[in-house]
Amino acid sequence: MSAFWLLDFVLLALLVASAGVVVWLRNLNGAVMALSAVGVLLTVLFVALGAPDVAHSEVVVGAIALPVLYLVAIGKARTDVTDEEDLGERGEGRRVRR
Amino acid sequence: MRLAFVVLLLAVGLAFSLSGAVGVLRMPDVYTRAQCATKTVTLGTLSVLVALVVGEGPVSNYGGRALIVAVLILVMSPAASHALLRAAYRTGVPMWRGSVVDEPRRMREEQESGR
Amino acid sequence: MTYAYLVAAVAEIAIAAVLVVRLALGPSISDRIVALNVVSTQAMLAVLLFAAYADRTVYLDVALWLASFSYLGTIVWSRYLERGLL
Which residue in A has a C-alpha nearest to residue C81's C-alpha? Predict the structure, then answer.
């Protein structure tokens, strides 16, 4: 009867590993993709814990909508300017003038 | 008897999925990795779905849904893989240094030398 | 027969662990897309097998959503690679 906790624990270990990958990667696109993998694995975890409605919303939001929102935000953000005075950013971008 | 068939098909599907995963991990560049992923994982997925159809019957809920998913995978997996690899080739992902065939570059060079 | 389904579901998730390694250290974006696509397919199989193990027909819709959205996500990512998202 209690054999399905094996699926639960394997999913939890893989979920922690994927979340660690999100933090560990320096590439922004790779981090967004690992976030999508977290969404997919969290869907399986919700199904294994007996919540199929939460799994529905998780597969739509966590696996598709959230990475697309992050991609749009990354595309909109400007990375060619740095503010060295107030924020203390360092980089090879153009300096903010005021 | 039916249990033996189901276990055999599940074992075949898991073996193919494992070989596809090891291929994705070990192959040298994107194109060979996608080849491993598409072919072996499609076959592994299909044999697991056929195991569900055999175990539960083709007109039950589980078997019918497994057949729908099988048709979806057979239609969409080559299309998605083709789109992904075309995007990878156009953005200039390098091939493995031991690969010998690069048809678009050869055609482009012939066209330029013909002018 | 149901325990065979459960063991197969756990094994599919364990295979997905191999692919998360490739997702972590793939050198280009396309490697990560390939690995993510296979992870989604394995998760779909795990949901389908777990539905057959637990004998709940409600779980089957999640498998269908996962199957369709994994390939849709691959096509969206390849469009993003080729000419931008918007």
Answer: A29
